[in-house]
Amino acid sequence: MSVEVTERSQPEPTTERTPLVRIRGLRKLFPITRGILFQKRIGDVHAVDGVDLEIFKGETLGLVGETGCGKSTLARVVMRLYEASEGTIEFEGQDITHAKGADLRGLRRDMQMIFQDPFASLNPRKTVGSIIGTPYRLHKVVPRNTIKTEVQQLMELVGLNPEHYNRYPHEFSGGQRQRIGVARALALRPKLIVCDEPVSALDVSIQAQVLNLLGDLQEEFDLTYLFIAHDLSVVKHVSDRVAVMYLGKIVEMAVGQTLYRNPKHPYSGALLSAVPIPDPDLAAAKKRIILEGDVPSPIDPPSGCRFHPRCPNAQFPKCSEDEPKLLPHHPGQVAACHFPLEDRAIIETPAGG
Amino acid sequence: MVEPLLEVKNLTVHFPTDDGLVKAVDGLSFSLLPGETLGVVGESGSGKSVSFLTVMGLISRTQAQIEGEIIFQGRDLLTLPIDEMRTVRGEKISMIFQDPMTSLHPYYKVGFQIAEAVRVHQKVSKQEALQQAVEMLRRVGIPRPDERADQYPHEFSGGMRQRAMIAMALSLNPDLLIADEPTTALDVTVQAQILDLLDRLKQEFNASIVIVTHDLGVVAEHCDHIQVMYAGKIVEAGDRRDIYYQAHHPYTWGLLESIPRLNDTETKERLHPIQGLPPSLIFVPPGCAFHPRCPHVFDRCRTEVPELLPADGHHASRCHLSLADKERIFQEEVMARS
Amino acid sequence: MGRYLIRRTLFMILVLFIVSVITFIIFVKLPASDPARRAVGRSTSPENVEAARHAFGLDQPLYVQYGRFAKGLIPWPGLFLNEDVYYSYANFVPVKEEIFSRLPVTITLAVGAATLWLLIGIPIGIISAVRRGSIWDRAAMVFALIGVSAPVFWLAYLFLYVFWFKLGWAPPSGIPIGTSVGEAVFQGVFILPWIVLSMTFAAFYARMVRGNLIETMGEDYIRTARAKGLSEKRVIYRHGLRAALTPVVTMFGLDLAVLLGGAFITETVFNLPGVGQYAVRSIFANDFPSVMGVTLFGAFFIALANLVVDVAYAFLDPRVRYT
Fold first, then answer.
1. CATH says C98-284 is which class?
2. Cystine design at B282: which of A85, B20, B89, B226 (Cβ 3.0–4.6 Å)?
3. Predicted ipTM?
């Protein structure tokens, strides 16, 4: 039986602990080339363009944003699936920005990832037992003959039937496949798990099961999560802190309820107001901020505040010339905006009222 | 009494497969009034998409066993010969789909694709049809529509592509627009734009809209009347307020309780999922199809299929629990939790 | 696009260079192909052989010899397959002359077969895809299986036996000297070769069209097209086929180019004096310059066809853009 917990313990206030992951000035640029024989770099896609971030042990940091904001790229750079163009990444105090070879492999035991698409992220030609067992085989953490037992224990832990050890991914439902992904990530008892949209592709009733599972596992194994999603309601449910990204930068970060009650950055406000509320009265009371146009390309980001072309609050020339810094607002909240929103700008009624 | 625009009576759609008969839609009956926005909610396997693909004639008797009646403006669409059905499709009833990236032909310009829809149903010249296409692009809020009409779909962003699809669907002023998961593949801010657009266009074009989705938030904000589907049947139907403030079916309760909400008091609270897995459509559970997952199940549920019975007004549910029980459980458990 | 063309052309040159080097090395290493020995005949004095070797420049360093051969690759009048190097020691005729005089036969054979296989293969593929699972589909796939599996020479001899020897419907194979290619076509000499050569390709194309069309018809934009109320015919042809045929165009360009280099087996069995037959004879005669000439000739066309086909793809599929 999987672990059942009814109440969650909240992690301690962030200022008193050292971060598990510390990111400073992170930039990831993908070059755009053009040329006849020798490709010349004529520009870059600014996927991640200057991010400072800390992730504390035991917390869940939610990362929210839309297409092109860089959240997936950021996650992959943290996981060292890409190498940063600039900046530093520290894991448990060690600089891992350019780790290679054996060091990098060792890192992999501490950092794992769960992917969005439960159909595409599992090798259809391998049995479930083999998929979950691979991390054990690669890192040689337990004697070979005990791998199967370990895997079956893990399967039970995530709510799968251990007798299905020899089945193939296509014999499982979407939600079960995602559980397989979770088991695989958990195999080496990592310290950090990056969840890249882990429930977006699942049905509503299954989403809740998988989210609960992730929460239970966090309690049991003292895990730290970097949780990436585009659905604010999901993020709210799993995160201690939330960061909002836009065009490669963090535009707002807040603890607990703060972002949802009092968003300060107009983009956070727009995101919040765009989330459909399954409650007609509350939905009617919601203030709308509807943005014009589409997300601009990260190849040529706008000058000054990147959000200014679409911002309903923008004032010129300040917003088009001066890039705002992340400034504190409510306790545990920072936002990068020259003309931030008023309190309770989106959801009028205080939460729970 | 207003004449319904669309009346579906006892529709069943069964697909014969190697593994058995997939009962995708199993006895669907509802009416849609003119000017109404209907929300059809369900998860994968509920039959919501299949039912409307059948209404459009995109699933035909060559692919599935279809029984029942689909009465649209007085005619049973299931009895129409193919050519006549084609005059209905695209002109009287239009449909837009989930993924705008793959729903437009990559080799033809956007303006051409819209104009093509027009020319199939109206006798106009190529230039006229193209002009209409440009006008439609303008009405759905695409800037510089004449330039855009001359571009290919891959040159549009996701939101714009969906707008172009909507333009194409509305170009012949249909009476009914079916939107099958129209915003699922889009970013949330773009989703808001598109849904707002649909609301506005509904007024302008005087059309009825059906939004098929799994998102309870979307239907709460944009639909007047809502149907919840499970295993090929409607399990609950009612006005907006009925469903959210007086739901009468355990599946609806389960959905309402299991979705994470923005207005919850605590973060990192445990959610209340519906236990179990969605049912097989080949071996549908006997009696009430939801009974294996229902926390309020009793003997009758396992053997007898409940009827869709009205409570009051438009509100109906398919459940053996008494009305008193339904109201009590909703108040005590669901409202308290969600 | 311009940049792309330049890059591809440079690449093409590189490919042809590599092909020529490899061909050169292979034949330099083969002892039986010593051209000097061939030229002066079997029984002669070693001094004569040496003199011949000197005259042909065969005593010069390898890279110099290669340089002379490589000049023949440049498609410029006077340089292309130039006579002082590409001279057949078996027949004492310039290679260029031989190839170009035989080209009309090969072209006639290739183009005729190509037309035939398109006319047969594509419709069969379409019908198979549209009537998937039906008796037509199964019959078509059996035909495809036979066509793809049956070796060309076996088919050729079978057809000759049945249609010429037994039934007398087809004229005897070969083109007598003095008959022009045009006359030969009228006499029906090409009919059996066309059919035989096209069968393999038709089968292959039928399968390819079937597969592509089935996949295309499952795409979302087909559902949209139907939802607009388009007739099924228009959906299949305008929307489905248009996308499904694009890779077929690519294949076709390449197949045709290969055939222009000579359909060896067909020409040999049917005794057609084309480039392919010439190549076969030259190989068996160990006639190095001829083989080299035909190889480079074929390589040139295939490399060119590769480039043309890739560029054509950009016109067919607007998503593809070359920089």
1. mainly alpha
2. B20
3. 0.87
